[in-house]
Design a protein that fits this description.
alpha/beta, TIM Barrel, 8-stranded parallel beta sheet, two-stranded antiparallel ribbon
């Protein structure tokens, strides 16, 4: 079976210069509610600002893509179609509500789904991941997983333990995912252990980081993650809650793809926030 379709789509998700992926997520409302998600209450404006910063991809649900992306048809950023989410009342169980065919029809370059591991609903979720992975393979679609050790059997401290995160990424790889989004362990040495637990061709990307509190924290985490072998980022709230979304997207892009240090990134961010000359970057 030809894998050309998947290879073409994967090539659009990964920057050829850095061999890293930078995606921004706006799929939070179903899983977390909308009242507290101030940065994406006006989701069209958020998407417009994000895309102006030229990320590699944006993760969103089918309804938002259908209503917010037509004006961006032809933009280089790929759509990652989120087809599952948990809910505030059931936070440890991802429920599938979309299909691979919908993602293909809407021009997506990847299908995105979640699994909350080490909890009561792990078995049900990984069964669905396995089925979707097989369908994605047949239809030439990359499968991106949002896989976290946040089930009922994991303490708050255990959510960043390298052993638990390694279990998540190895499980994602064994189930047939192509890219897994997961939690950063908190330091490059332990995250390097996670990276070593999967084949080099399997891509791990990190979320924004529940433990980060400041801009410096996020920028340093991004730099450290790139240096220890992580294959990119898929960030959400940190980006679209920032006062200048486009400037931050560009700054993260320069850390991830251009190898900027934290110091260089902060200088670039300050300049972009002042001059608003986004089109020059």
């Amino acid at each position: 079976m030809s894998m050309l379709g998947k290879e073409i789509r994967m090539s659009r998700l990964v920057n050829p210069k850095s061999n890293k992926m930078m995606a921004i997520t706006v799929d939070h409302a179903i899983s977390r509610g909308i009242a507290g998600m101030t940065g994406i209450q006006d989701v069209q404006s958020a998407i417009d600002k994000i895309l102006l910063g030229k990320p590699d991809a944006v993760t969103m649900t089918k309804g938002i893509a259908e209503r917010c992306m037509p004006q961006h048809a032809g933009d280089p950023a790929s759509i990652l179609m989120k087809i599952s989410n948990p809910a505030p009342a059931n936070p440890t169980r991802d429920v599938v509500f979309g299909t691979v065919d919908e993602a293909i029809r809407m021009g997506a370059d990847g299908v995105s789904m979640g699994a909350i591991m080490m909890g009561d609903f792990q078995g049900d979720q990984i069964e669905k991941v396995g089925m979707i992975a097989e369908e994605c393979m047949r239809k030439g679609m990359p499968l991106i997983g949002h896989v976290y050790p946040k089930g009922e059997n994991v303490s708050m401290e255990g959510r960043t333990a390298w052993e638990n995160i390694a279990y998540c990424v190895r499980s994602a790889c064994e189930l047939g995912m192509d890219i897994v989004k997961t939690t950063y362990t908190g330091d490059p040495d332990s995250m390097a252990k996670v990276v070593s637990c999967v084949p080099s061709s399997f891509r791990i990307v990190i979320q924004g980081g529940d433990a980060c509190n400041t801009l410096d924290d996020y920028l340093q985490m991004t730099r450290d993650a790139m240096d220890c072998g992580v294959g990119g980022v898929t960030m959400g709230r940190f980006v679209w809650d920032y006062r200048d979304v486009t400037a931050l997207v560009i700054t993260l892009r320069y850390i991830i793809h251009e190898g900027y240090s934290v110091k260089e990134a902060k200088e670039l961010l300050a300049q972009l926030e002042n001059d608003k000359n986004y089109d020059q970057f």
